[in-house]
């Protein structure tokens, strides 16, 4: 018996001039998924069809894509939308392979519908679906064509990094908090397994796609780099010998090719003018054998370039960062804790240097503060509030940079003082100071790596 999926969503009434038919089909692992097929009410020759694959999120309901499904159906294309799985999908665990199998289950269901030409059924993918739809097509000759909207031919971690850093730049942020802090924290999450499918090989998948492909981007896409991705798509497709692709760009449109009243920040309810008509005519052409040949105009300019985010080297890996963090906690807390224990026992010891306290306190505060602040920015996603910004630097980041500089200066002063009084320092105090200064020595390159000592 196949496992049941999420309960079917509410029925979708048939829009004017269309029919609405509920369907169920097995996805990956036999999970039952539920959807709706919208098609022209007027009978005629078997028509082409398309399965819509939504973007990120667990259990996204089918009506999220109702506008697209309605407009495509009015162009004569039978369109299947379905409730996305929540089983096996979360922020920390998802599989594009499983989602591709779900999409292929939907393709088979649509191919079996009366009035649909089974040889003319393709897949359409939005955002995350732009990784999933080509993967599904690369696995099955049953898929006749591929459409991606706001799609990426780069790794998910590179796209996400661009998404988040672009949001910060729009808030006036620049410099090391983006170029070092944000970038390295994102890579750390990917290395630690906290970013599902972080290094998915999008170009490798596209190189295996043999079907014609339509790529659509809004010129004001704020989530996916609309300038960087089209050349990557073309390069990957051509590497696999596929030149049957068409790229189109819609001025003023957002990530999903919807009209946007404010430059891509807010999604309007309507599709960009001409977008649905493009899909209808392109599908009719390619399913009739009229294939495009590398039709790729110059893409729109994006505000900021995306940057590579490769897996970390061993010296910056999650395990190395964890080891450094443990050293900092031990080294910077041991110094004041030992002093507290001595005081409680009535054994006061004159410190070698009062700067040591600043090294311990400032170093620990900077280490903990960096991770808390960068985690906060990550959690804020596309709606960050970095705090007051001065000359491109958020006030919390400036404070952390000040702590780092103070801690390093204090470490140097402590080392100098210890050298001057080394002969008079008791053995126990030498151990305490040695541990503290070891933490300070590692803190210096660590602070450079995270951008605390950079403009």
From TrEMBL:
Residues 100-258 form the Peptidase S9 prolyl oligopeptidase catalytic domain. Keywords: Hydrolase, Membrane, Transmembrane, Transmembrane helix. The chain crosses the membrane at residues 318-338, 358-378, 398-419, 431-452. InterPro entries: AB_hydrolase_Est10, AB_hydrolase_fold, Pept_S9_AS, Peptidase_S9_cat. Gene3D superfamilies: alpha/beta hydrolase (3.40.50.1820). It comes from the Bacteria. Residues 289-309 are annotated as: Disordered. This is Prolyl oligopeptidase family serine peptidase. It comes from Actinomadura alba.
